[in-house]
């Protein structure tokens, strides 16, 4: 069986939560699932057209006063089944590509001051992510109704994973900065 783009499943999963425009899908990716998944416009729109062509999603147009017409995508029953089938498949291992660590590994000829700046920037990015996780957790706890308790728990689990990863990265950055200070 040919390998299908994971983008299709990410978009089906989001559309299974809410009907959205392509713009809103991108915004959702950037604001809600960014700690574990990202998408760009170059992938979203062709995949949406593919999902629609395959009968996995439908579209309708919506007009908002003073704004251009939006195409709102919704998942179909066939799309829900495809998503469910994918969710039941074993997970492939996580990608082993982390450019930040790759660059650090090969940075013997790079000035320590530059490395300190790079590590400090990563630490700050993870600290900012921790703030976002805190807000996301609060929104999930307050904004998801009781009839969606399973969804709330699953969302909170993913937020927790992101929070733990960022906490670990902040700790690693602190340790790495201490080592780099000794290298000056």
Largest sheet: 2 strands, antiparallel
What is the H/E string? Answer: HHHEEHHHH
Our count of helices gives 7
- Beta-strand residue fraction: 5-15%
Low-confidence stretches: none
Placed side by side, the strands forming the largest sheet appear as: 1-2
The N- to C-terminal Cα distance equals: 54 Å
Number of DSSP E strands: 2
Using the alpha-carbon principal axes, give the shape. Answer: elongated
The helix content, as a percent range, equals 55-70%
Name the structural class.
mainly alpha
Mean pLDDT: 88
Radius of gyration: 20 Å
What is the topological layout?
Layout: H1 6-17, H2 22-31, H3 41-53, E1 57-62, E2 70-75, H4 77-87, H5 99-105, H6 112-143, H7 149-181
Helix pairs in contact: 1-3, 1-4, 2-3, 6-7
List the defining traits of the structure above:
single chain; 184 residues; mainly alpha; Arc Repressor Mutant, subunit A; 2 domains; 7 helices; 2 strands; 7% strand
Can you give a write-up of this model?
By secondary structure, the chain is mainly alpha-helical. The protein has 2 domains: 6-87, Arc Repressor Mutant, subunit A, CATH 1.10.10.10; 99-181. The chain is 64% helix and 7% strand. The protein contains 7 helices and 2 strands, in the order αααββαααα. The chain has a two-stranded antiparallel sheet with strand order 1-2.
């Amino acid at each position: 069986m040919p390998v299908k783009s994971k983008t299709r499943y990410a978009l089906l999963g989001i559309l299974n939560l809410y009907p959205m425009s392509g713009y809103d899908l991108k915004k959702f990716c950037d604001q809600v699932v960014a700690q574990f998944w990202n998408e760009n416009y170059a992938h979203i729109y062709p995949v949406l057209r593919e999902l629609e062509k395959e009968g996995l999603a439908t579209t309708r147009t919506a007009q908002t006063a003073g704004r251009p017409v939006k195409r709102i995508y919704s998942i179909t029953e066939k799309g829900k089944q495809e998503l469910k089938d994918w969710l039941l498949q074993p997970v492939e291992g996580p990608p082993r590509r982390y450019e930040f660590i790759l660059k650090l590994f090969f940075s013997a000829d790079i000035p320590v001051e530059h490395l300190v700046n790079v590590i400090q920037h990563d630490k700050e990015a993870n600290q900012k992510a921790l703030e976002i996780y805190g807000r996301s957790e609060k929104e999930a706890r307050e904004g998801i109704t009781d009839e969606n308790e399973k969804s709330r728990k699953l969302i909170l689990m993913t937020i927790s994973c992101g929070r733990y990863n960022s906490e670990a990265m902040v700790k690693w950055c602190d340790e790495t900065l201490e080592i780099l200070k000794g290298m000056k």
